[in-house]
């Protein structure tokens, strides 16, 4: 079985209930409105808006991305997947699904966010797009492997953000830095080290995930 | 037995020397420490603060090594060893945070200022906390060992970011930060204005604390084995 077939299966079962997409969309709206209510009519400092964007992204990701594996355990379809595919195929398929979900989610968040916050002005758009692209990939990889761990553990809901936060912290810190750079209009050369760190994080996470997924899955 | 006496003498010497040796402007004899501008008497906590931070990372390293060993051999003893190492690591992590906060209060003016190294010790504490939360959520022994081993390895690959990369590319207050004037290349932390006797006691302290860690780890592991044996006896009646 190809990873793409698994992705298609996930896509169709997602379309049937629209659980992940609906809960994600509602969560984005809730998170953004909580921030807007708490700010009220105050003026927000510019560098704060860049950080708040990543708060919204982190918690939205935590609310929906564990679905990929938890749903299989809930439906009891894990054994079937064991029979028809290799672990690496399963991981590829789930990663592809989460990647697309993360990109959709973050595009919606960023568009809504820049519409709602007047202070959120990007001066170096290319740098921001690169940051956005790289950190979305990292977010998808880390959340997929943690979702696999969570689906095998007992307490599924509460443990997911607890386990993900320390793993995602380097990514979030670097992304916040790069977002504030792109808001200040810093050039590519000055932000090169941070971009390299982001690429390193993605490569390391992807390698570790592929190596460790077998152990989780064959349990 | 001999090495326990040796450890006792070493730790006693390090504690006495670290606390009581005077700090003077121009050291004449070997037992006098040089005056480091901006640190003065505060500098003495380095003999106890840095070893605890060092053992936090060592605890994590040992825990991960035994996690890898468990995944290869599936032997539950390795899981117990990894668990004890992580327990000790958490204790030293809290000690490093507290001693660091106390030192920061007197050297920088506030207990906590989100310096990159403070952020990284906080992240390590979060990782340890998450690891124990994961362990307590799983009932089956084999499953718990496997999943926690996987998580420990996954968390370990992010540690270089906290310990080596972030403190050097972000502005901070510790030596070796991106905006540091004394070691602009981001050199090692110990490289500032310590004289040879200070360095000697610093490294003796590191060695003594590492032996202490090994001893505590050994005792913890054996007590865990005895506990399990007793539990089995109680169940069997």
Topology:
The complex is a heterodimer of chains A (219) and B (237).
Chain A: H1 3-17, H2 19-39, H3 46-64, H4 67-75, H5 78-84, H6 87-116, H7 125-152, H8 159-184, H9 192-217
Helix pairs in contact in A: 1-6, 2-3, 2-6, 3-6, 3-8, 4-7, 6-7, 7-8, 7-9, 8-9
Chain B: H1 2-20, E1 23-24, E2 33-34, H2 46-73, H3 76-107, H4 116-136, H5 141-156, H6 159-169, H7 196-236
Parallel strand pairs in B: 1-2
**Portion of residues in helices of chain A?**
over 70%
Question: How many structural units, i.e. domains of chain B?
Answer: 1
- How much β-strand is present in the residues of chain A? under 5%
Instruction: Determine Rg of chain A (CA atoms, Å).
Output: 18 Å
User: What is Rg of chain B?
Assistant: 20 Å
Number of strands of chain A: 0
**What's the total count of β strands of chain B?**
2
| Number of H/I helices of chain B | 7
Order of helices and strands of chain A: HHHHHHHHH
Number of helices of chain A: 9
How would you write the strand order of the largest sheet of chain B? 1-2
Distance between the termini of chain B: 36 Å
Oligomer: heterodimer
How many structural domains does the protein architecture of chain A include?
Answer: 1
């Amino acid at each position: 079985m190809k990873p793409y077939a698994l992705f298609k299966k996930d896509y169709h079962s997602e379309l049937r209930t629209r659980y992940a997409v609906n809960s994600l969309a509602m969560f984005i709206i809730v998170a953004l409105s909580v921030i807007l209510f708490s700010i009220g009519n105050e003026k927000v400092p510019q560098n704060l808006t860049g950080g708040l964007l990543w708060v919204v992204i982190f918690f939205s990701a935590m609310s929906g991305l564990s679905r990929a594996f938890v749903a299989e355990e809930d439906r009891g379809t894990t054994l079937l997947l064991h029979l028809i595919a290799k672990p690496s195929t399963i991981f590829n398929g789930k990663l592809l699904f989460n990647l697309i979900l993360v990109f959709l989610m973050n595009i919606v968040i960023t568009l809504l966010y820049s519409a709602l916050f007047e202070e959120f002005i990007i001066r170096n758009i290319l740098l921001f797009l690169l940051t956005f692209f790289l950190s979305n990939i990292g977010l998808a990889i880390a959340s997929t492997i943690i979702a696999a761990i969570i689906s095998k553990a007992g307490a599924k809901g509460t443990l997911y953000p607890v386990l993900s936060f320390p793993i995602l912290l380097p990514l979030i810190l670097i992304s916040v830095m790069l977002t504030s750079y792109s808001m200040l209009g810093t050039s590519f050369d000055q932000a090169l080290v941070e971009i390299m760190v982001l690429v390193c994080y993605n490569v390391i996470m992807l390698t570790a995930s592929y190596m460790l997924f077998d152990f989780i899955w064959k349990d | 037995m001999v090495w326990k006496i040796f450890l006792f003498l070493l730790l006693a010497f390090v504690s006495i020397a670290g606390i009581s040796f005077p700090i003077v402007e121009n050291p004449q004899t070997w037992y006098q420490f040089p005056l480091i501008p901006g640190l003065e008497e505060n500098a003495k906590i380095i003999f106890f603060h840095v070893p605890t931070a060092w053992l936090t990372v060592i605890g994590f390293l040992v825990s991960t090594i035994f996690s890898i060993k468990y995944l290869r051999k599936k032997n539950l003893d390795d899981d117990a060893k990894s668990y004890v190492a992580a327990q000790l690591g958490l204790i030293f992590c809290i000690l490093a945070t507290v001693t660091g906060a106390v030192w920061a209060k007197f050297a920088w003016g506030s207990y906590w200022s989100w310096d990159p190294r403070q952020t990284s010790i906080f992240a390590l504490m979060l990782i340890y906390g998450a690891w124990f939360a994961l362990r307590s959520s799983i009932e089956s022994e084999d499953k718990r060992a496997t999943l926690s081993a996987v998580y420990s390895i996954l968390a370990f690959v992010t540690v270089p970011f906290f310990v080596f990369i972030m403190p050097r590319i972000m502005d901070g207050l510790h030596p070796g930060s991106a905006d540091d004037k004394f070691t602009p290349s981001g050199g090692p932390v110990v490289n500032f204005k310590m004289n040879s006797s200070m360095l000697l006691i610093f490294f003796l302290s590191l060695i003594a604390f590492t032996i202490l860690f090994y001893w505590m780890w050994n005792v913890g592991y054996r007590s865990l084995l005895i506990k399990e044996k007793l539990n089995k006896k109680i169940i069997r009646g």
